[in-house]
């Protein structure tokens, strides 16, 4: 049985998808980009600020699914420029304990929705 997860504390979906789906004890999140959920505006001041907004959006989605970053077992990071990797990684890493960090891949892509610089999705379990 699947349960749809949505919260006003993260940006509303901009297409035919939900913020996350809970199936059993597993939460599958959609990718989050740096949209401020209060204003609906993109946060693109710099790559660290953009990544922080993405992670805060993801935090809200995880919480809506009854989970935290400690429950995350896998992340996917999509970036438009691999030269930004170290700055993205610095912000991303501040949300996880190194010893229990999830599995992850980071992939450079040609474009992302709304032409942002970073998008992150996660899988978490209880």
How are the strands of the biggest sheet laid out side by side?
1-2-3-6-4-5
User: What's the average pLDDT?
Assistant: 97
Query: What is the chain-wise order of helices and strands?
Result: EEEHEHEE
The CATH superfamily is known as RutC-like
User: Which architecture per CATH?
Assistant: 2-Layer Sandwich
Radius of gyration: 14 Å
Q: What is the terminal-to-terminal distance?
A: 16 Å
Q: What is the fold named in CATH at topology level?
A: 60s Ribosomal Protein L30, Chain: A
What class, by secondary structure content? alpha+beta
Stretches where pLDDT falls below 50 for ≥5 residues? Answer: none
GO molecular function, one term: deaminase activity
Family: Belongs to the RutC family.
Protein name: 2-iminobutanoate/2-iminopropanoate deaminase
Describe the structure.
Helices cover 21% and strands 27% of the residues. The chain is an alpha+beta fold and 126 residues long. It has one domain: RutC-like (60s Ribosomal Protein L30, Chain: A, 2-Layer Sandwich). A six-stranded mixed β-sheet has the order 1-2-3-6-4-5, covered by helices on one side. Strand 4 (72-79), helix 2 (85-93) and strand 5 (103-108) form a beta-alpha-beta unit. The radius of gyration is 14 Å and the shape is globular.
């Amino acid at each position: 049985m699947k349960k749809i997860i949505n919260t006003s504390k993260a940006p509303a979906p901009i297409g035919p998808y939900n913020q996350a789906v809970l199936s059993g004890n597993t939460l599958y999140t959609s990718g989050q980009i740096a949209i401020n959920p209060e204003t609906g505006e993109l946060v693109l001041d710099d790559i660290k600020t953009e990544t922080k907004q993405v992670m805060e959006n993801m935090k809200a989605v995880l919480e809506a699914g009854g989970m935290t970053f400690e429950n995350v077992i896998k992340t996917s990071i999509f970036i438009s420029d691999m030269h930004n990797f170290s700055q993205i990684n610095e912000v991303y890493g501040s949300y996880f304990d190194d010893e229990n960090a999830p599995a992850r891949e980071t992939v450079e892509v040609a474009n992302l929705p709304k032409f942002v610089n970073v998008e992150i999705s996660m899988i978490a379990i209880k």
